[in-house]
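Pipeline run #58 for the internal structure catalog. This entry was flagged by the ingest filter as a single-chain record with no existing model, so it goes straight to prediction. Upstream metadata was stripped on purpose; only the residue string is passed forward. Reviewer on rotation: M.T. Logging verbosity set to normal.
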Amino acid sequence: MEKYRSIIKSFKYAFMGIGFMLRTSVNIPLYFAFTLLVIVFGIYFRIFGYEIGWILIMALLVICMEMINTMMEELVNLIKKEHSAEGKIVKDVAAGMVLLTTISYIIVVLFVFIPHIIRYFK
């Protein structure tokens, strides 16, 4: 029984972390809005289920990277109260990670949609 309580606590803490991100992040709602828009266009252009799957995987990857970025920023702020070159590097690299993942997400969306858009306008 103690094992199940531990698992339930783990899920509780995980959902608290997700809730923190939803309340405090400026970017997470934008990623959700973009993904919702992509899904709506996907339905309109009748993209395949596996293509939606790839888009959703990329969206979740971007959101996870944003969460890691926030965690790194908060950790640096906790450790270093004053501005430092090392802290800036950590924050910049984490932000770069999110940027590259977001660009990858956009590339996947374009790879999925371009053939459907071309077919639609033929």
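catalog note: The mean pLDDT is 91.
catalog note: The domain at 26-121 is CATH 1.10.287.3610 (Helix Hairpins).
status: ready for reviewer M.T.
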